[in-house]
């Protein structure tokens, strides 16, 4: 938990192969997340696991092995390049870190094991206990959100929510944001302008940060959905970023960049993230999920007594507040030890690691039963908990085409053409057309590769 400041969220933009096609697997009896289990035949099974060592720790591994005498874990630090090589050689790990949002591509390629047969028999992980974030790991052969599960989330946040510093609002004589009612994106931009302070051509205080360097695709997709628009056509093979809904979202980002209220790729944050600016009282509002509150526990009372969380802003009439990623785990389709990997899945999601994550405040748990473990000791934690619980009902799914990566493929294209529009080299309409052409080319290439 100790090294999650900033670096945890930077992982949003890393690419990950998560989820794949249906595979029939033999099942052992599902283990209890806290009980002793052996391999059944007296032999020790070595389970190859690829994860982040600050999320699945040495202590977790030792505890799991002690409770499952027939299983030993061979741990590999998560690495995209190595994972891709292992998948390509048909020698994948048995248990792998993966993202829910963006899993459609891996699903379409048949890279993961169907988990429904395991869920059917498990006394630890039940469908009715899975929060909606897990639906992005579902795949029916054509789209996410329905059909079998091919992965499970470990924790998540509705990443468009807002954190702000009341003290900076007071200094600017501006009414603080509501912690119960969403603000519109247009209003938010105007408030951001009023909170921004500049001197000598330099920005002293940014009014509003959107974590530009981390993700453009997800918030822009959310804006389109909130207006009742769609990012893709019916079969997920094409996009159209020249629709009124898409152009409104793109124009908002261009206006944001031209107003200079927050860091962009043309005016980047010193370390590529909002946190240091926010903690230094040089940023009044930052757009980050519930997990962001984990940063403040060890900060000064000045910070803890002034931070607050607000609902995700809206653009249009449809209130949607999705997760941008939803990290979790899956079992590769060609894993050698699927039953043992499922035991680790139960332990990691519903056992001590899951409880620890929920209590830490570094994101919400992905199980309904763990929500009550979220921290409420400090005043700001109580307020954030209340805001987050109300926000849950608006958790929607971001669109996910199997023919293109999510943020990793979209972000460079969006950033390139938004920069051009911000600098008045092209119009917003021309930017929308250029984005459409480039993304559709990538979609065609992806479809050709998958078939």
TrEMBL record:
**Where does this protein reside within or beyond the cell?**
Cell envelope
Q: Which InterPro entries match?
A: Bact_solute-bd_prot1, SBP, TAT_signal
Give the signal peptide, or none: 1-24
Q: Which Gene3D superfamilies match?
A: Periplasmic binding protein-like II
Q: Name the keywords, alphabetized.
A: Signal, Transport
Supply the source organism for this entry.
Micromonospora deserti
Q: What is its main location?
A: other
Question: What Pfam families has UniProt attached to this entry?
Answer: SBP_bac_1
Domain of life of the organism in this record? Bacteria
Tell me a GO cellular component. Answer: cell envelope
Q: What name has this protein been given in UniProt?
A: ABC transporter substrate-binding protein
Under PROSITE patterns, the record lists:
PROKAR_LIPOPROTEIN, TAT
Question: Hey, which family's this protein in?
Answer: Belongs to the bacterial solute-binding protein 1 family.
What the entry lists under SUPFAM superfamilies is as follows:
Periplasmic binding protein-like II
């Amino acid at each position: 938990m100790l090294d999650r400041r900033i670096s945890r969220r930077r992982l949003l933009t890393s690419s990950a192969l998560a989820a794949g096609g249906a595979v029939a697997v033999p099942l052992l009896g599902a283990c209890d997340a806290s009980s002793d289990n052996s391999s059944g035949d007296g032999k020790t099974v070595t389970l190859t696991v690829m994860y982040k060592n600050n999320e699945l720790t040495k202590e977790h591994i030792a505890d799991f092995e002690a409770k499952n005498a027939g299983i030993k874990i061979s741990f590999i630090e998560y690495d995209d390049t190595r994972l891709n090589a292992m998948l390509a050689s048909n020698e994948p790990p048995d248990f792998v870190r993966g993202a829910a949002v963006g899993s459609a591509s891996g699903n379409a390629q048949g890279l993961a094991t169907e988990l429904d047969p395991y869920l059917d028999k498990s006394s630890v992980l039940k469908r009715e206990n899975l929060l909606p974030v897990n639906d992005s790991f579902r795949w029916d052969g054509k789209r996410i959100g329905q059909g079998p599960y091919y992965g499970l989330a470990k924790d998540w946040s509705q990443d468009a929510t807002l954190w702000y510093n009341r003290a900076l609002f007071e200094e600017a004589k501006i009414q603080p944001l509501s912690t119960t009612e969403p603000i519109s994106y247009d209003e938010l931009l105007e408030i951001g302008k009023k909170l921004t302070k500049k001197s000598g051509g330099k920005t002293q205080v940014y009014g509003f940060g959107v974590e530009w360097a981390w993700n453009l695709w997800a918030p822009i997709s959310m804006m389109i959905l909130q207006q009742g628009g769609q990012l893709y056509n019916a079969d997920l093979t094409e996009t159209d970023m020249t629709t009124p809904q898409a152009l409104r979202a793109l124009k908002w980002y261009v206006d944001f960049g031209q107003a200079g209220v927050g860091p962009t790729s043309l005016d980047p944050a010193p370390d590529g993230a909002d946190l240091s600016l926010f903690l230094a009282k040089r940023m009044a509002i930052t757009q980050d999920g519930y997990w962001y509150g984990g940063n403040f526990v060890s900060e000064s009372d000045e910070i803890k007594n002034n931070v607050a969380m607000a609902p995700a802003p809206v653009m249009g009439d449809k209130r949607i507040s999705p997760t941008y990623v939803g990290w979790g785990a899956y079992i590769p389709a060609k894993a050698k030890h699927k039953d043992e990997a499922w035991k680790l899945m139960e332990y990691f999601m519903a056992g001590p690691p899951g409880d620890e994550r929920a209590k830490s405040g570094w994101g919400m748990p992905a199980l309904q039963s763990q929500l009550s473990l979220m921290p409420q000791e400090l005043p700001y934690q109580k307020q954030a908990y209340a805001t987050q619980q109300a926000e849950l009902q608006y958790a929607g799914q971001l669109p996910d085409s199997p023919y293109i990566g999510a943020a990793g493929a979209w972000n460079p294209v969006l950033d390139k053409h938004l920069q051009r529009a911000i600098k008045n080299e092209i119009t917003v309409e021309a930017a929308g057309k250029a984005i459409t052409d480039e993304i559709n080319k990538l979609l065609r290439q992806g479809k050709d590769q998958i078939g």
